[in-house]
Design a protein that fits this description.
The protein is of the alpha+beta class. It has helices spanning 46-51, 72-77, 79-93, 98-101, 104-110, 135-146, 241-247, 270-273, 330-338, 366-369, and strands at 22-26, 34-39, 42-45, 111-113, 118-120, 128-131, 162-164, 170-172, 177-178, 181-184, 193-196, 200-201, 204-210, 229-236, 239-240, 261-263, 268-269, 277-279, 297-299, 302-308, 316-322, 349-351, 377-379, 382-384, 392-400, 405-416. Strands 6, 7, 8, 13, 14, 16, 17 and 22 form an 8-stranded mixed sheet that branches. The chain has a 5-stranded antiparallel sheet with strand order 4-3-2-1-5. The chain has a 5-stranded mixed sheet with strand order 9-26-25-20-21, with no helix packed on it. It binds calcium ion.
Length: 420
């Protein structure tokens, strides 16, 4: 028997009672931000639920974690708090539970129609790291930039490769992205140019939101890493390929990446994703012991990217991929990140890197889909090598359960022209 809520939830909704993802919202313009969970077309205001004394378990009873303007305190409390909240909220919202269902004034206060709210970044992100965990993406980038001899660097099969990203320019879905300006370098001996990026791209990624951190100098064991991950969001790691290609030697990505990164507003918890766990790809060669996990798993999350070209009404689907394609798991990424003693903090964000599948229809960015502009994509009436001003890029992701979906909603952004 599938668990049902008294709140009406359409069969194609990403937010049934099985999901209950966390976000931060303003119920009305000018009101104080507060944490909520999505249920169907509503947001359940957790500050109202907490004030009504409905979190009565041992961890959350006297906590003020839901009377905050972000989720950092709650995610930092760790798994006992997350479990307790999930049990409480699933019970409170279930069709058979009268507490909220039969209390019209409380219901009115606690359930806010999602069309009325403004979603904000769910956590204060202190640090953001971007991995490179899809083998198909790593291989395609190597083929494009370095050629067919050893497209994947030998270190890639031993190290979950990453770089430190820029946290200050992470924005919530729906925020416009201004085309960055910077240096590019045409092939051959010409001098570099400066101007609006000519190769603006999206990167379809997901990102893990760190829960409890670790002390400086104390690495997290790979088999305990899942206790440090609260959940996942969709992430578009916008990339200016011309700027990136010219600047990345020898220290890696910088201004080609740091102008903007978009995340979806709802953090889907690992608890909600657990029914969709799938075996991670077998590692060959076997990883070093600190990365060898007893259970190595991904999640079966279908991902899709659409582009709504400038001036057009319709969206075109440009790729379909799946989170299960990742070679390095998010727990291996987290363990690797801390193995030198680096400390993570609640709310830190770990991007997976572009999630490309094995087939050309499942590549996760335009660099791969158009093979660096050599094979333009057809989008209804127009074609694209890279993004043009006015283009809107929309990501969605969801898991298909038996009679319900567990989804992430959307992660979207529109390109605005560079300032002149
Ligand atoms: Ca990336």
């Amino acid at each position: 028997m599938v668990l049902k809520s008294f709140v009406e939830v359409q069969p194609d909704s990403h937010f049934p009672i099985q999901n209950l993802p966390y976000g931060v919202f303003r119920p009305a313009p000018g009101s104080e931000p507060r944490p909520g969970v999505a249920i169907g077309e509503y947001v359940l205001d957790l500050s109202v639920v907490a004030s009504a004394g409905l979190f009565d378990g041992p961890v959350l009873k006297n906590s003020d974690c839901f009377n905050q303007v972000n989720l950092n305190k709650f995610v930092g409390l760790g798994r006992p708090a997350w479990k307790e909240a999930r049990v409480t909220l699933q019970k409170l919202l279930s069709a058979t539970e009268p507490t909220l269902r039969d209390n019209p004034s409380l219901r009115q206060k606690a359930l806010v129609p999602v069309v009325q709210v403004q979603m904000l970044l769910p956590v204060v992100i202190g640090d953001y790291t971007d991995f490179f965990a899809s083998m198909h993406h790593a291989k395609n980038c190597g083929l494009i930039f370095r050629g067919p001899e050893n497209p994947i660097n030998p270190n890639w099969f031993h190290i979950p490769i990453a770089y430190h990203g820029r946290a200050s320019s992470i924005v919530i879905s729906g925020t416009d992205i201004i085309r960055p300006r910077g240096q590019g370098h045409p092939p051959g001996n010409s001098p570099p140019y400066f101007g609006p990026s000519r190769k603006l791209d999206f990167e379809m990624e997901m990102a893990a939101v760190v829960g409890p951190g670790n002390e400086l100098g104390k690495p997290v064991d790979v088999n305990e890493a899942a206790d440090h991950i609260f959940g996942l969001v969709l992430m578009n790691d916008w990339s200016a390929r011309d700027i990136q290609a010219w600047e990345y030697v020898p220290l890696g990505p910088f201004l080609g990446k740091s102008f903007g990164t978009t995340i979806s507003p709802w953090i889907v918890t690992l608890d909600a994703l657990e029914p969709f766990a799938s075996d991670a790809p077998k590692k060959n060669p076997p990883p070093l012991p600190y990365l060898a996990e007893k259970i190595s798993k991904n999640y079966d999350i279908s991902l899709q990217v659409s582009i709504k070209p400038a001036g057009e009404e319709d969206r075109c689907i440009v790729t379909r991929s799946n989170f299960k394609h990742l070679y390095w798991t998010i727990t291996q990424q987290l363990a690797h990140h801390t193995i030198n003693g680096c400390n993570l903090r609640p709310g830190d964000l770990l991007g997976t890197g572009t999630i490309s599948g094995p087939e050309p229809e499942s590549y996760g960015c335009l660099l791969e889909l158009t093979w660096n502009g050599q094979k333009p994509l057809s989008l209804g009436g127009s074609t694209r090598k890279f993004l043009e001003d006015g283009d809107e890029v929309i990501f969605t992701g969801c898991c298909k359960g038996d009679g319900y979906l567990v989804g992430f909603g959307t992660c979207s952004g529109k390109i605005l022209p560079s300032p002149s």
